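Encode chain A's predicted structure.
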Amino acid sequence: MNLNKKAVEVKDRIVVFDSNENPKYLSYRLPSMVVTRNGVVCVACEAYTTMHGDWSESNLLLKRSLDGGQTWQKPVVIAQDGHLIQAEKNEMVLKKGIGENNKITFDNTVLIADRNGTLHVLYCVEYARIFYRRSDDDGITFSEAVEITSALEPLNKVYPWKVLAVGPGHGIQLRNGRLLVAAWISPGTGAGAHHPSVTTTIYSDDHGLMWKCGEIAIPCTDEWIDPNEAVVAELSDGRVVLNARSESAPRLRLVTTSQDGISQWSRPAFCDGLFEPICAAGLLGVTSDTGRILLFSAPGTKEWLQESVENQQKCCRSELMLHLSYDEGVEWPDSILLAKGNVAYSDLAEMPDGSILCLYEELHPDREGLSLILIRLLLQNIVA
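Encoded structure for chain A:
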């Protein structure tokens, strides 16, 4: 099956969070986006009060749109310093002397749109603790935060960790109702206190009341170096695919599958059609008239990959691409350029009318700070 050239049409480009709009926040990063049962678009992100490094001071914000992303309501704060009495710097950061003293990092918001109408929110504090909130009114009000860090405690027996994160991006709900979120853990002994790392998942089978962890999906080995920041999608046969960032030599995304999203993961494999700029990505499964399609968004092209390897560059986050697969991710024959310039993390969501939303980070050429930009896409004329 191939993609007709008219099948992807870029309709709109809308600034959701502008790095120049609020003097309190210098940069907006790590987008997470879902569309609720009622068609409300909800996006969440980290809003940095200083620089936009991993350990910088940040708040977590959420915006809502009632018209498919055309206009946005004022942001609400999901989490910020002061709401947790015992919020402290991650011990690995203190040991390494990085980050900002007495400044708390709130990071990695993950949204999940439950079919029952609930909006689930997971986020981290200092890459050390995970919290959960929920909204029953499409993101207008939220429950009190509940700590669920213990969900990952069982993995301490096989991979002792001091640093953790969920996402980034959105989580999913499987057909059987299971809520599923990709996560990574690290002892924090390497560079930036984020390395080495392995990927896993956390899940809930009771609509967010209790959370547990799955098995390690991709370990850290000489072949699979520092897998982290993974995304998940459900395939047509019910299997779950986990697609992870890594720093492995092939400069390709790492992929593994599981029957239930938590156990018996297949041997990780490098995906020939998806290039690795060492950057988080977006993954979304959609159903068309001709079957299931996987969409994948990330910076980088084949030409960029070759140049990057030849010049031994660590990464080059430019040219946001949308890749399409019609065979459950085995091959990715079609791709289109969504945005030029300096781009980074992205997330994908589907509207009730079948249009696709892509929310991504963009560095403005005239000023510092990352903004979050929304693109609306139409998929049509998929032909065999």
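The longest strand covers residues 334-350.
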